[in-house]
Amino acid sequence: MDKLIYTALSGATQTLDRQAVVANNLANASTVGFKGQLSMFRAVPVNGAGHATRAIAADTTPAADFAPGAMTRTGRSLDVAIDGDGWLAVQGDDAGEGYTRAGDLQQDAAGLLRSNGHVVLGEDGQPLVLPLQAEVSIAADGTISALGAGDAPDTLAEVGRLKLVNPPVEQLVRGGDGLFRLRTGPGEQATPLVADDTVRVVGGALEHSNVSPVEAMVAMIGNARRFEMQMKMISTADENERGANRLLSLS
Q1: CA 164 to CA 159: how far, in whole Å?
Q2: Can you give the pTM of this predicted structure?
Q3: Between 20 and 30 A from 181 (CA), which of 9, 59, 93, 235?
């Protein structure tokens, strides 16, 4: 009987965890450049004397869905979308290098270029600073040019270049700040990647989230029904245990 309880209880717990993953994906269905989080179940044996036949269900999030999201034209000069494979390098909350596909860039009061609050890095790994109140354009190779207010069109000058990288997606892991980083061992720090000249961007466009709201809603309904089934299994195991105890008490 306890085998059933082990399976159902652990399954119910992990279903709640999977529901949280799906809810997070749904909440980011309109977030620019967001990559959906994947979730899957696996059976884990229970270690210890007398538990050789016991197993629990575990929910793991091995990777993200790296499929590209839909691209739309915005016409905004600071909007960029990665054309094909590649990532935009930014400074993470840990001051290290992180990678994102969110190209809705903003310029703060100090001239720093930011993506969702994270400082955007240039090809030399240093923060990009743009002239204030300048007319900015971004080329396909990430080169940023600026034209000061009142300046002649022929004075357009290059002020920096986006750091664009293209690491193997199987080596990337999502951090708590939403950025992706190279997978490292415990206590290790990832080495910043070298800029990849083959990565291209589309100026005046944005890549949207690759999460389908309809699929996320269907997954949430499926998780809710799975949780109800597992709770029913626990209730059935309890009823069977009570029935067995009553039979033993009559003997």
Answers
A1: 16
A2: 0.80
A3: 59
